[in-house]
Amino acid sequence: MNFTKIILYKEPAISEINIEKLTKFLEDNFPFEVKIEENIFKKFDLKNIKELSNTRITDIRNSFSKYDSNDTEIKFEEKLCRNSSIMDSTTKIEDAQEISQVFMYDGFELQKILRYLNEDNETLQVILTNRLTCTFDENDKRYHARAVICANPSIISTTGIVEAPAKPKEYYFEVMKLRTQGLDIKSAKEKYKDKFLEYNDKRLTKILEGYLLQIIFYNITGESFCEDIECRLNNAHWQKDLLFSQLEISKLCKKHNEILTSLN
Ligand SMILES: [Zn+2]
Description:
CATH topology: Collagenase (Catalytic Domain)
Distance between the termini: 14 Å
Bound molecules: zinc ion
CATH superfamily: Collagenase (Catalytic Domain)
């Protein structure tokens, strides 16, 4: 696909996202016009809101079936659309007694709702959101959190970036131990803070650059990810790999760098 323009829709609830930096990153690396738009969900009408609420996942062990939202849920979804920072008041994965308490959305179904944005083939639309996107994996028959849905429109979930790549195993053991002792998990978080991203992490903007690259490469070449861990297109399954590729290495492998050069 030959894009001439990228539209990036903001997520205002996450103040750590430096949109000017992301704009500059895109302008410096690609020959596209970059346009910034307000949060997409703010503009949703009631029909969109209802559809959005119906993409929620309540059972992670079954593939998607349309959720039948009640009026209270639709009203709450509307509130979330108007003010996405309300998402902070919902249950986070680490605090959930049961996973169904967490607000999760089917990423592909959400993508379908957003397709109305596509006006032409020359514009790539990228939605930033703090909604947690998940996709069903046919191999292990369950939903998994996803940081990015590569398509057009594409979706980057800031919650997915925190929750999808796994934290160190030792961290989970330590959390479990503290929980059984009835203790706060803060000490474990402090001990492993350099090993994974937190909500409202200052490193988020730099990490987002990597996901933007993955989206752009997917839409241009049809391949989203790179096997090379020393490449920003690497699909990290672990937080430590994500931090390594995006922060320590922070560049593309030779092959992908050549593709990038050829675009300019
Ligand atoms: Zn690569």
